[in-house]
């Protein structure tokens, strides 16, 4: 920077105007206080990526995304221990939401697979990991998301059925939530 730029006073009114364009975040800062102090803050990179991915994926207002459908499964079947069929359905949902063919390390599907493995070895129900433990905040854990469609619901349902010993789905589980979201989106 040139010496004249360093000596130039900061126009707080201009900075405040720019700061008002940045939304406050839960993790963030008390923006009212910062604006008074003329402090410039940056949006977190995760928040910015989520917003860009949501806009890129073409998700329109009022549609239910796959991530939101996974979060809805917490409300309907949150106390259910994660089984292999649930992990397969969650993996299928993540693959469809992100458009990637492999699962992300540390993502929702990886957590579900780990939980299913641990639950298979657990002796008591109190020690088992539930769907609520895995799926809470699922839409924020996905790097990108898209509106749930009938094809997505069919893929998730097929994955859950193939990995269930009785070839059925859980009535209020992951597949049911994605199917309900697809039906609502199709009606719009």
UniProtKB/TrEMBL annotation:
Keyword field: Repeat
Entry keyword Repeat: yes
Protein name: Late embryogenesis abundant protein 47
Similarity annotation: Belongs to the LEA type SMP family.
Boundaries of every SMP domain copy: 64-122, 129-187
Biased composition (Basic and acidic residues): 143-154
Organism lineage: Eukaryota, Viridiplantae, Streptophyta, Embryophyta, Tracheophyta
Region listing for Disordered, in residue ranges: 142-170
Classification via Pfam families: SMP
InterPro entries: LEA_SMP, LEA_SMP_dom
Organism: Cardamine amara subsp. amara
């Amino acid at each position: 920077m040139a010496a004249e730029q360093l000596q130039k006073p900061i126009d707080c009114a201009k900075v405040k105007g720019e700061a008002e364009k940045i939304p406050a975040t839960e993790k963030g800062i008390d923006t009212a206080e910062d604006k008074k102090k003329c402090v410039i803050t940056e949006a977190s990179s995760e928040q910015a990526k989520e917003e860009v991915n949501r806009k890129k994926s073409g998700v329109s207002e009022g549609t239910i995304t796959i991530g939101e459908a996974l979060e809805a499964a917490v409300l309907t079947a949150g106390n259910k221990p994660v089984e292999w069929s649930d992990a397969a359905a969650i993996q299928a949902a993540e693959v469809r939401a992100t458009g990637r063919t492999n699962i992300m390390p540390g993502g929702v599907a990886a957590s579900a697979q780990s939980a299913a493995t641990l639950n298979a070895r657990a002796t008591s129900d109190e020690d088992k990991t539930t769907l609520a433990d895995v799926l809470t905040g699922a839409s924020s854990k996905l790097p990108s998301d898209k509106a749930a469609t009938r094809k997505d619901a069919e893929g998730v349902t097929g994955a859950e059925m193939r990995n269930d010993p009785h070839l059925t789905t859980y009535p209020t589980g992951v597949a049911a939530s994605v199917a309900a979201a697809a039906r609502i989106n199709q009606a719009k």
